[in-house]
Description:
Distance between the termini: 22 Å
Order of helices and strands: EEEHEEHEHHHEHEHEE
Number of helices: 7
Oligomer: single chain
Amino acid sequence: xxxxxxxxxxxxxxxxxxxxxxxxxxxxxxxxxxxxxxxxxxxxxxxxxxxxxxxxxxxxxxxxxxxxxxxxxxxxxxxxxxxxxxxxxxxxxxxxxxxxxxxxxxxxxxxxxxxxxxxxxxxxxxxxxxxxxxxxxxxxxxxxxxxxxxxxxxxxxxxxxxxxxxxxxxxxxxxxxxxxxxxxxxxxxxxxxxxxxxxxxxxxxxxxxxxxxxxxxxxxxxx
Length: 223
């Protein structure tokens, strides 16, 4: 069953008098529970595509359909709710709040969504266990290594049971050993929780953890 689909996705930017085509008619389908790596040279449109998939930017033409909803047809308020509940984001820089503990950072999306956190303490603990940080639940980011901070960020992305997780170079700010641990955690989330993951990476070793690799070149799918 497909969870995400793009149809003839086009994104153009105006740079002075020049029109730059970042994406030129991208069509692809993501099945529920798939782990996809998006690869391609710098400037191929990888990050642009991820931003469109996450509703962080709007296409110039074409459409993105997530969990049966076409993003371009949603109001700003509805799109905000979709981003909050249906999409988990993992960035290269961990974006944890320094004053919060690991458990509080994981729970943050629920708090923003107006949920009562005491109802979700077992779920937060389960996710910290999934990313092997149960014993660090009360540590703040400055007490954690880079790899541990990224594992907190993964647990945070999972906490709303999103339709998809979008990971933008999630190992790009880590040494190779920590990066491999992050990829194992993502693979585990896919295998054990049937989580759909789309990861942008330039690292062919990272791509080996995915079920499928989509290659972009000059704004189009190359293979």
